């Protein structure tokens, strides 16, 4: 009788362990931020979307200096440029509402020190795998 009780107890514990580990898995892995707080690129899961973010704080920048948020898909080579702002203070956000399974997304902050499109410095976020 004691063996049956021990066996049932072990079976119950195994069942509860399965219950604790089952459920919906997150659609994304990785992501996060890279760079310093004054020049930073971030990417993360935001519900069913991918959220691309850039943050810039350049107190003594040239008045023509501008920042751009760039969304990247390393899987396909897709590049989508969004939001230009002043280098003095800029926070840009953009959500990709239909991310593709198996793709690798990154955010990039581009800093055009003298305005225009060239040359620029950049920081890329870590990869977010969807």
**C-alpha-based Rg, rounded:** 22 Å
Shape assignment: elongated
> How many DSSP E strands?
10
Low-confidence stretches: 4-25
- The end-to-end span amounts to 51 Å
Protein name: Secreted protein
Keywords: Signal
Organism: Streptomyces caatingaensis
Signal peptide: 1-27
Write a structural description.
Keywords: Signal. By secondary structure, this protein is α+β, with helices and mostly antiparallel strands. The protein has one helix and ten strands, in the order αββββββββββ. The protein is elongated and about 40 Å long. The chain starts with a helix and ends with a strand. About 17% of the residues have low confidence.
Write the layout of secondary structure elements.
Layout: H1 2-21, E1 29-30, E2 32-36, E3 39-46, E4 49-56, E5 66-73, E6 78-86, E7 90-96, E8 104-112, E9 121-124, E10 128-129
Antiparallel strand pairs: 1-10, 2-3, 3-4, 4-7, 5-6, 5-8, 8-9, 8-10
Task: List the defining traits of the structure above.
Secreted protein; alpha+beta; Immunoglobulin-like; 48% strand; six-stranded antiparallel beta sheet; 130 residues; signal
Short description, anyone?
With 130 residues, the protein is α+β, with helices and mostly antiparallel strands. The protein contains 1 helix and 10 strands.
């Amino acid at each position: 009788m004691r063996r049956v009780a021990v066996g049932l107890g072990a079976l119950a514990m195994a069942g509860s362990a399965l219950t604790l580990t089952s459920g919906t898995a997150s659609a994304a892995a990785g992501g996060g931020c890279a760079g310093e707080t004054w020049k930073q690129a971030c990417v993360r899961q935001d519900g069913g979307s991918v959220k691309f973010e850039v943050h810039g704080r350049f107190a003594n920048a040239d008045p023509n200096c501008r920042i751009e948020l760039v969304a990247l898909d390393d899987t396909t080579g897709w590049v989508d440029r969004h939001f230009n702002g002043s280098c003095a203070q800029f926070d840009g956000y953009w959500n990709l509402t239909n991310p593709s399974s198996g793709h690798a997304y990154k955010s990039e902050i581009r800093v055009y020190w003298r305005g225009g499109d060239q040359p620029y410095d950049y920081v890329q976020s870590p990869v977010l795998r969807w």
